[in-house]
Write a structure and sequence with these properties.
The structure is a homodimer. Chain A has about 375 residues and is of the alpha/beta class. Chain A has 13 helices and 12 strands. In chain A, the strands form 3 sheets. In chain A, strands 2-8-7-6-5-3-4 form a 7-stranded mixed sheet, with helices on both faces. At the A-B interface, helix 1, helix 2, helix 3, helix 5 and helix 9 of A face helix 1, helix 2, helix 3, helix 5 and helix 9 of B. Chains A, B: Pfam families: Aminotran_1_2. Chains A, B: Its cofactor is pyridoxal 5'-phosphate. Chains A, B: Keywords: Aminotransferase, Pyridoxal phosphate, Transferase.
């Protein structure tokens, strides 16, 4: 008899490691990266107030975190115009969306996303046996109308939409999302991933009632708040849905330093503004560096920029590899035609200087 | 149509919150606890080296943690006499055992544990639809022979055994566990929870090869290492089993401050010895306080002591409630006859002083 006996579902899952981190790449190449621009982390860091709060909280780390994240949920509710019962704090969007998939999706259940959108969502859907249906991007943007139409066709229980989008950085107005909701079929929940919304133009965040049972929104402290390594994010949704996570979540799963940092971070609006300004400057700088090299950058509402390498996916992959070989960590879209691009995170001026230095060499090598 | 559409399994799960934290109790009673002795946290705190490492790492928190926990796995492998491929780092034992249950257990699969053992294990088994079979404690100890015999009867895929035990603090020698393994049925994995093993007498840790496919051991930084709020633990097991977690785990789920703290903590053997000494003193103090009040304390190989309140479970519950009402956070076993006890975590002298002050009043009130 095999030992141990996995579930039938687990036996069907691929045994390859789906996500290689930059540290693994550094170990492979035998040197650290000069510029870490591949994971859309915030090189501008967290609020100094959050840093102080986290360093102080380290002294309290012998205690489990508050499983209800009481204080943080209350603060977020105030900011979001919702009640604390509408807010779920969890281990980053990745952790929360894994639990959401677990709540809704079993073997054979239909789920809809865009081909080339967030792979971690697909990973969790596969991990619970869901059938993933994909619609294509249109003009490098996710297509809410097509997503919701497909959801109706396949009787989907869940549909994924990121606004702004990752990996392209494109976006829809919140009003367009709200209008499209009229065509979301009954019985289908929209997971609206707003990981990057703090970087987007006013009006990008969809004005949706926290109590609207059709939608769960997810946000994170990993991007604009500069706390990717803290693993903390939150969801906003109807009270019944938020409460249902209590059936399955790891109740004592939150790191208390992360909880303290998030609370301080969300209260420091000035730092958020500072980061938004720095990101806007870096987006312009990436766009300019691309143009100096004869490449075009896509408009972005995020803290990264998709740069069109001007040829096919194979060429863009070579550009990426040559950048990595020269110490610049970047990633790229996986699906045609978006895969003609590389995705470059916004960095500080010194990071952008490294990019400006290395990109011409990488392009020349890729063309050789 | 209901919105959203949960899985059939989720619809069967209870919607009550299974685990109330001490912060919630403090909010209910309107005052902080005077002594936090209910969750077996380490009031002696983490290694000062770990505190320094964590405070320094806060400055790097803009980066995701290394998904492979490379450096920590290598250090733990050295200490455990295993290879890094035998080690899985995860979000505390709670997180790892949730994923283990997910790997093995689907609706109707048989699982065996002791009646009154770790409720979070039961929670995860129920959460994946497993059928939980329970054997009784014998003389306040878990009973490996009975567990494995029941596993054979019900064709269990997974059996849970904590050594030392929580909530009673009792233990078996490692040699006894190894001998009992001969009767573990084929196709059944033993989850050996060693969360408290650092507090136990020499010889309590079972000498089991990391590559033994019959067993997965789990350890934590939440207890002896004083980092419960960091949410980091590890499993030791056969390479294939450890690798299988990569199919489902949240790869970027680790807090990087926790990773840095754990690495520093595991390298500070002197602090571990200090904590072990302090815990031994506190166990003796709890035993003495119990005796002064006419109660008997059970021998303990952990950082807590089960104190027999000398009557039935209802009386012990009243004692607990009177302690809580007086600002002493404790918990208690839930199942007869273990529920005649309250479970008191080891604390610093000042925490033990509070217990000594309050216990006579609590007993008097419970008897009134």
């Amino acid at each position: 008899m095999t030992q141990p006996r996995y579930t039938d579902l687990v036996n069907t899952l691929p045994s390859t490691v789906p996500f290689v981190g930059p540290e693994e790449q550094e170990r492979s190449r035998g040197a650290p990266f000069r510029a870490r621009l591949g994971a859309n982390e915030s090189l501008f860091g967290p609020s100094p107030a959050a840093v102080r709060a986290m360093q102080a909280e380290v002294l309290e780390i012998w205690k489990y975190g508050d499983p209800s994240s009481h204080e943080l949920r209350h603060e977020l509710a105030t900011q979001m115009g919702a009640r604390p019962e509408n807010i779920l704090v969890g281990e980053g969007i990745d952790g929360i969306l894994g639990n959401l998939v677990r709540l809704l999706i079993g073997p054979g259940d239909a789920v809809v996303t865009s081909d080339g959108a967030y792979p971690t969502f697909n990973y969790h859907v596969a991990g619970f046996g869901g059938d993933l249906h994909k619609v294509t991007y249109v003009d490098d943007r996710e297509d809410p109308a097509a997503l919701f139409a497909r959801a109706r066709e396949v009787d989907a229980k869940l549909v994924y939409l990121a606004n702004p989008d990752n990996p392209m950085g494109t976006w829809h107005s919140g009003a367009a999302i709200v209008a499209a909701l009229d065509d979301l079929p009954d019985g289908c929940l929209l997971l609206l991933d707003e990981a990057y919304v703090e970087f987007a133009p006013d009006g990008t965040a969809a004005q949706i009632s926290a109590d609207d049972p059709r939608v769960i929104r997810m946000r994170t402290f990993s991007k604009a708040y500069g706390m990717a390594g803290a693993r903390i994010g939150y969801a906003i949704g109807a009270v019944d849905l938020i409460r249902s996570f209590d059936k399955i979540r790891n109740h004592f799963g939150m790191n208390r330093v992360a909880q303290a940092g998030a609370l301080a971070a969300v209260r420091d609006g000035a730092w958020l503004t500072h980061v938004q300004d720095q990101v806007a400057e870096a987006r312009a700088r990436i766009t300019a560096i691309a143009a100096e090299n004869g490449l075009s950058a896509l408009p972005s509402a995020t803290n990264f920029v998709a740069v069109d390498c001007g040829a096919d996916g194979a060429f863009a992959t070579r550009v990426l590899e040559e950048l990595v070989a020269r110490g610049v960590f970047v990633r790229k879209p996986a699906v045609t035609p978006q895969d003609r691009c590389i995705r470059i995170s916004c960095g500080r001026p010194q990071d952008m200087d490294v990019l400006a230095e290395v990109l011409p060499e990488a392009l020349a090598a890729a063309r050789a």
